[in-house]
Design brief:
Blueprint lengths: L4 E4 L4 H17 L3 E7 L18 H8 L1 H12 L5 E7 L2 H8 L5 E5 L13 H9 L4 E4 L9 E4 L7 H14 L3 E7 L20 H22 L5 E7 L2 H9 L4 E5 L13 H9 L4 E4 L4
Parallel strand pairs: 1-2, 1-4, 2-3, 4-5, 6-7, 6-9, 7-8, 9-10
Antiparallel strand pairs: 5-10
């Protein structure tokens, strides 16, 4: 519970928006904020790193006191009294932030950085951390200052259980209602019957819907008992999964989703639903990985 919130900064507008969000998250949790700024591709942490020519003199001072200092001032201004530290590291940003996430309770990044092509909707850092990070990842995106409930994407998978627990805790932390959205369609369980049955393509819709409702209720039951003060709205929707979640994100303050749920290829670390939300959701997204 005392692990810090970390935020990756690179001097981009998206990165500074992430600092604001990370400061708010640290305040909510009552934990310190650690600002992480990585550069170059040589491992090492100041003061142990050996300066390269481009890092000497003013260049080195700028790396240490430029963007990280501006980010720290921004965080302290947003949340007076917040404990803020800086970590300026020489190394590949993806690798540095992945390592830093081992000691964090939450990692926060913007949805775009300075080193992405203009046609890309999401920076490589966010995608990499969502798939490989060691703590939940918040990607700051969507409309400014979103309000509404916490939105949980429920899929009933074992891998998604960590996201369910996290979403309940987040709703309790914020004093916000929780919308637990489970989207189903005729492909949810193929046909509910023996997979060798030649008639499995014929779906009993009523039976399938009843099964999906049980799945939703069973998924939520233990967490509702553990968080009796959280107002929960179970929502069962027959639709395309990604489209329904993206629509719902327009009325949410935050979306919580597992890194990978049902379906997909074996070995995938980041599923198509979580990727769609990271790219297109209209509010911040937190991706929670299961055991890894």
């Amino acid at each position: 519970m005392n692990k810090p919130v970390i935020v990756g900064v690179d001097g981009s507008p998206s990165g500074f928006a992430a600092v604001d969000a990370a400061a708010d998250e640290a305040r909510l949790r009552g934990v310190p904020l650690r600002i992480v700024h990585a550069f170059g591709n040589r491992p090492g942490r100041f003061p142990g790193v050996t300066p390269t020519p481009e890092m000497s003199g003013r260049g080195l001072a700028g790396l240490v006191h430029g963007v990280p200092s501006e980010a720290e001032e921004r965080a302290r201004s947003r949340v007076p009294g917040l404990e803020v530290t800086r970590s300026v590291v020489s190394g590949e940003p993806l690798e540095v932030l992945t390592i830093e996430s081992r000691s964090a309770g939450l990692a926060v990044v913007g949805n775009r950085g300075l080193n992405t092509f203009s046609s890309l909707l999401l920076g490589s850092t966010a995608v990499h951390l969502a798939a490989h990070g060691h703590c939940p990842l918040m990607v700051v995106r969507g409309r400014p200052s979103p309000v509404g409930p916490v939105l949980l994407a429920v899929d009933g998978s074992e891998a998604g259980e960590a996201a369910v627990a996290f979403a309940f805790a987040e709703a309790a932390l914020r004093g916000a209602p929780l919308v637990a959205l489970h989207v189903w369609n005729s492909r949810s369980e193929d046909a509910l019957d023996d997979p060798l049955d030649p008639m499995r393509i014929v779906v009993d819709v009523d039976r399938l819907e009843a099964a999906q409702r049980r799945l939703l209720d069973d998924t939520l039951a233990p967490h509702r008992a553990a968080h009796p003060d959280v107002r929960v709205e179970p929502r069962l929707v027959r639709s395309r999964i990604r489209a329904a979640l993206l629509r719902a994100s327009g009325e949410a303050r935050l979306v919580v989703v597992g890194a990978r749920g049902r379906g997909g290829f074996q070995g995938m670390l980041l599923g198509s639903v979580s990727q769609a939300l990271l790219h297109h959701a209209d509010c911040p997204v937190i991706v929670v990985r299961g055991r890894h």
